[in-house]
Amino acid sequence: MKNLSRAATGIDLNLIPIFIEVVRCGSMAKASLRLDMSRPAVSMALKRFGMLFNVPLFTRQGLFLEPTPYALHLTVEMEKLLGLIHDQIANAPSMGESIPAPVTAPECDDATPVASTV
């Protein structure tokens, strides 16, 4: 299994919900209210997220941000992925329930510390 940690990839996955909310709202001001974040924090997060791509994600239309077709495509795909993550967490087994065996075991990296379970 590849190491997809933030340290290895440089990608902060916390930026994804902020990006999606700006697309939904059409403005950083509205998104900041819905996210309970300051406008500068939303602006910085959006800037950091945009730096991951070689294409613009928004065009400014006065006070509003118009998502590009690529931004709309990203939003749809990322909403699907976030939905899958939420479903996996919501459907996690409770204490004492059996856990389904993985189809394939993840590869072990000797540099990866082993976590113990109690």
Structure, explained:
The protein has 118 residues and is mainly alpha-helical. It has a single domain, classed as Winged helix-like DNA-binding domain superfamily/Winged helix DNA-binding domain (Arc Repressor Mutant, subunit A), CATH 1.10.10. Helix content is 48%, strand content 7%. A two-stranded antiparallel ribbon has the order 1-2. Strand 1 (58-61) and strand 2 (64-67) form a beta hairpin. It is elongated. The protein starts with 5 loop residues before the first helix and ends in a 28-residue tail after the last helix.
Q: In short, what is this structure?
A:
The chain has 118 residues and is mainly alpha-helical.
Secondary structure elements and pairings:
Blueprint: H1 6-9, H2 15-25, H3 28-35, H4 39-50, E1 58-61, E2 64-67, H5 69-90
Antiparallel strand pairs: 1-2
Helix pairs in contact: 2-3, 2-4, 2-5, 3-4
Q: pLDDT under 50 segments (min length 5)? A: none
Number of helices: 5
CATH architectural arrangement = Orthogonal Bundle
* CATH homologous superfamily caption: Winged helix-like DNA-binding domain superfamily/Winged helix DNA-binding domain
Q: How would you characterize the largest beta sheet?
A: 2 strands, antiparallel
Beta-strand proportion: 5-15%
Number of separate structural domains: 1
Shape annotation: elongated
Distance between termini?
24 Å
> Helix and strand string, N-terminal first?
HHHHEEH
Return the structural class.
Answer: mainly alpha
Kindly report the CATH topology: Arc Repressor Mutant, subunit A
Radius of gyration: 18 Å
Strand order of the largest sheet: 1-2
Number of strands: 2
Which whole number gives the mean pLDDT? Answer: 85
**Helical amount among residues, as a percent range?**
40-55%
Question: What is the CATH top level name?
Answer: Mainly Alpha
